[in-house]
Amino acid sequence: MTEQLFTALSSIKELRSSVGEIFESLGGGVRAEHGVEGRDAKYLLELQDLLNAVTMNLRDVEAAINVLTPPAGPFNLGNSSFLSQETTQDRQALYSQLVNSYKWIDKIREHSNLAANLLSHNALKRSYSTNSTKRRRPLTSSHNVLPQQVDQALTAIDRNFNDMTLKIWRPFATNVILHISLSRVLKAAVVFKGLMIEWVIVKGFEEALDDVDDLWTESRHRVFQQVRDHTHSAMLHFYSPTLPELAVRSFMTWIHSYITLFSDPCKKCGLHLHNCLPPTWRDFRTLEPFHVECKH
């Protein structure tokens, strides 16, 4: 039975292939390979050969299907076969819903496997791990820091910038939301977990950023939407599980470079505006401004 079913499936596959060749030939029309003289006749002859091949493959499919025998009894549906005994109208469609749920779960499992394979190749990790078998002192976690230590680190950073204001806010008692005001250029809110930066939102100086709900609404200006995307890249770039204070200080130095967002030209093209936007990218090492299209 299995061999006969495989033969029938192979015949259907060949039939689909031959039909596809016909549509491909019809789509291409008369080609240069048909020559100059009698090209129409050659093209018609080619179509006739393809149609003959389809006819032969169709006969093979019919012959293979005629050999197949239907199952003697109903398929084994397991416990789901008892659903047919339901008399309640709202439960009679449960079997089709179960089939759809099975297909949906199977597709989720397939996509999850693909995502796991892709993520396993990603070397950007925000955790410190080692494969060494030696016993060593556990490393300090940057997200498990006392609130007093966080306040001291942020206050020390605030003293280094005269034209950037940092305001510590704890709406949930423990973790800090740091409000940044950069010399009437932009405002930003940096969400911390200990000394680890978890989220950054950037908005224009005149936009609201004083409420917790404002952390999840993006700026209405395209320039600050781009800056926000760059801050997420910087958040991951400067992250260090062993030196969290240095990571935060480096991030603050980088975001402070946006004080010249609307004044410095791009270091590559020399223009102030490109696609109606200023250079929104800042190099992580040199802090030089670049347009998004010019940074590579």
Describe the structure.
The chain has 296 residues and is of the alpha+beta class. Helix content is 42%, strand content 11%. The protein has helices spanning 2-28, 39-67, 94-120, 147-158, 222-237, 244-256, and strands spanning 164-169, 177-182, 186-193, 196-204, 281-282, 289-290. The strands form two sheets. The chain has a four-stranded antiparallel sheet. Strands 5-6 form a two-stranded antiparallel ribbon. The protein is elongated, with a radius of gyration of 33 Å. The protein starts with a helix and ends in a 6-residue tail after the last strand. The model has no long low-confidence stretch (mean pLDDT 84).
Number of strands: 6
Can you give the helix content as a percent range? 40-55%
Low-confidence stretches: none
Total helical segments: 6
Briefly note the structural class of the backbone: alpha+beta
Q: Distance between termini?
A: 61 Å
Average of the residue pLDDT scores: 84
Largest sheet, order of strands side by side?
A: 1-2-3-4
Name the beta content range.
5-15%
Which word captures the global form? elongated
Largest sheet: 4 strands, antiparallel
SSE order, one letter for each helix or strand? HHHHEEEEHHEE
Radius of gyration: 33 Å
